[in-house]
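Training component of the fellowship. As part of building independent skills, the fellow (R.M.) carried out the full modelling exercise for a liganded target. The chosen ligand was iron/sulfur cluster. The inputs are recorded below so that the supervisory panel can assess the work.
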Amino acid sequence: MSKENTVSDIPVLSAKHIVKHFPVGSFKRDKVVHATDDVSLDLYAGHVIALVGESGSGKSTIAKLLSQLVPITSGTIELNGKEVNTRSRRAFREFTDEVQMIFQDPFGSLNAIHTVRYILGRALQIHKKGLHGEKLEEAVIELLQRVKLTPAERYIDKFPHELSGGQRQRISIARALAANPKVLLADEPISMLDVSIRLGILNLLKDLRDNYGIAILYITHDVASARYFADQTLVMYAGRVIERGQSEMVTQHPAHPYTDLLVNSAPDPDHFNALRGEAHGEAPSLIDPPSGCRFRTRCPFATELCAQKVPPTVQAATGQEVACWLYTDNPGAMVNIGREGELATIHDMDLSDEVLAKIEHNKEALR
Ligand SMILES: Nc1ncnc2c1ncn2[C@@H]1O[C@H](COP(=O)(O)OP(=O)(O)O)[C@@H](O)[C@H]1O
Ligand code: SF4
Ligand SMILES: [Mg+2]
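Fellow's submitted model of the complex:
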């Protein structure tokens, strides 16, 4: 089910310009980590959004802010169009009826001393007060069926350590489904699993999207899985979203130099495009992030303009929204790909010798 097929055009869960600064240092708390900076996103029923980016780019922070596990520095979060306020215990519990999280480590997130029956039964009782006896047992079995652990009798009396990683992750998903949520926030749900069972978990999440209309935020550092699974992909770099659009376009025709690096991360000397998109160095410190475009310390296309001002977000000819000076008609940018232009990305462009020399110069300086 795509967004177009859904009844409502109001997002179920929405983040508006959210910012998270974590204070650091035990003595003088005057330094902060700029973990998330002005991020907006909308999650729709029956729709998957992937959040991709390398480690430390702020993906988990977004999931924690959306799930109300950490307080927001500024910005707002809306559930069904209303601003969320979970300061009271009751409001938080009501929020968790609608929004549930799935974590990376299915072993760490399940209590080892309880059986599957207890884990799922307890979750059901939290969200559906008064459920007990036979009805509770039936509901536990139904949950196991929803996550394709059948026959349910084979799993219901097992302890987490008696299950495989994939089965444990299915129990974690079943526990989240006990609330009958509208939104699942899945933070790297397959990255700790054996490669052979990852697809099975993604297909299960797809089934929940298609057959139950659940909105899913799928966090990953694996661009290929975002293409397979997500309708839309958002790319994060150093706390900011730098590109967003249809997953197919973002992963097949990346517009932002960083997305390009992420997609073509295996360097190929015979591939001129990959060479042009080559970037160097480490991700920047988020305590003192680079001025202007945060990618400029690794970007071969960077100019002075990139250091002076945060690039605006504009639409590339391929449809994605991209935060990069190359896609504006600002004369300070190294080249202008122009949103109205026929050229979609840097790879479609015949760069002049002068520009190529500048790129080479930048690359040397970055080494
Ligand atoms: N509780 C915290 N206190 C201080 N810094 C934090 C905290 N949680 C995350 N960070 C920092 O915020 C940045 C983003 O982290 P995170 O959201 O976990 O990134 P990702 O999930 O993309 O790897 C990192 O620099 C990380 O060290
Ligand atoms: S704004 Fe400048 S530094 Fe940032 S990605 Fe674009 S060209 Fe590179
Ligand atoms: Mg993370």
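The panel noted the following from the submitted structure. Residues 256-257, 293, 295-296, 299, 301-302, 306, 311, 324-326 surround iron/sulfur cluster (ligand 2) (CB under 6 Å). The chain has two domains: 3-109+175-233, 254-366.
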